[in-house]
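User: Structure tokens for this complex, please. No commentary.
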Amino acid sequence: MLKGRPQRIPIEQGFFTIPDDPAQAPRLLGSRCGACSEVFFPRRVVCAICLAASLEDIELGPHGTLHTFTYVHLPLFGALRAEAGHYGVGQVDLDEGPRVQAVLAGERDQLAIGMDLELQLETLRLTDSGEEVVIFRFGIPRTGRPS
Amino acid sequence: MKIENAAVLGVGMTRFKRWKDRSNLELAREAGLAALTDAGLALSDVDEAWVGYMAPQPMLGVRVMKEFGLTGLPVNNVENASATGLAAFREAAWAVSSGRCRIAMAIGFDKMSEMAAGGQGGRGVGRDSIDNVILPAAYFALWAMRRMHERGTKPEHFAAIAAKNWNHGALNPLAHRRPKDRITAEAVLASPMVAEPLTAMMACPISDGAACAIVAHPEIAKKQRADRPVVHVRSSVFRSETYAPGHTFLGAVVGPPSITRDTAQLAYEAAGLGPEDVDLALCHDAFANEELEYYELLGFCEEGGAERLVEERATELGGRIPFNPDGGLIARGHPGGPTGLAMIHELTVQLRGEAGARQVEDARVGLAHLVGGGSVCSVNLLQSEG
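Assistant:
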């Protein structure tokens, strides 16, 4: 944890990493089947395809492609999002395979189906003790996609 | 499997609307008594009850059934999100078809007005969780945006479907939305944006209500009401998802589109019927763009042909294949538990020829389809004898 920065805690444990360095992109916590190699998010114990129970934990992301999106005009999710009054959500195909539903950063006109996106963390609110409650989202990539 | 020897003998429902001063018990009592009266039966004639509701209250099914009397009959609670009512109907139909019993009741009720407000177990404003970033409206908007990207579909297509269902609702005394003046696609497009491209008038309202269907052996149906056609249950297929790439495990899930195609195919095969035999269809039009997708997935046009069906107005009353003549979820309403049983109510009334101003001419075969979060799908085929 960097000095002077509030500690970041996940909205729920077991879904994504929170790097100590805020400049680093988070990763999603997924599974790969040891028998058929299918990759899943979030983590699972039994493979959804071949039903083998030999899954290994892997980290996914941070790069993906926007499969579809919408811009929501009802302020129903999260304190900060409620103030904004509108926000993007979408389905992103991770480079490793799984399709993930998430909030999107950016204005409506910045979003287009097929664009590259990168995982980020978004602060939803502060706890009474000053910790930042964060959730993963996708936004415009700050780093190049590995070739 | 083909359902044999099961017929819808009685149906009843409340109007769907916001019933501020009536409880689930009161609503269910009205719908259940109406169905028993329609069937010419008393509760002592009923062998089993399947009770569908989404309200997070254990034991509610048994408590509701006590409103009709205490006869000792087995009462089972059913919950499958939007598809709850059809899931309960399937169990009642199979209970009769299997020979386990002669008469079974499926009853559903809910007050979405209370659940949507974030009551116990509800998901209201500010209830942020990692599984809750995508609201239903946004989830179906994701379908709509992808469809527009792939097929060039216009918001006007969705608006035309919504306007059709609003106008069908005007003909249904039990519908939540009964507009006095004709609703235009322009008015639908001009209503507030919810999640691009879906506007408020393309979405179902928040409704309360109850509906009930009583299933019996066809011989009982003939004997009880020799004055009207017997409405046979030909198939009732209920499925959860199969895995396919692109499946999302986290957040709102109402199945990939293939769940409807697969379930419909099984229902057609079981009934020995095809889309060409169907005279009217009711589908899960919680959002107008869904109905457009289901034209294809239920087999009423080829892939990519749904937009033309809208342009030809083929799914309006009087068209080639009327969809949601009772107003659908958009106008009749969608309280949750009773929605599927309101569909069975509408199909039964239509197949008896008792639908009045919204009667589909010579209606012999009807289809009822719902998807439910989680996700699940139900497709049912009913046919009047003659």
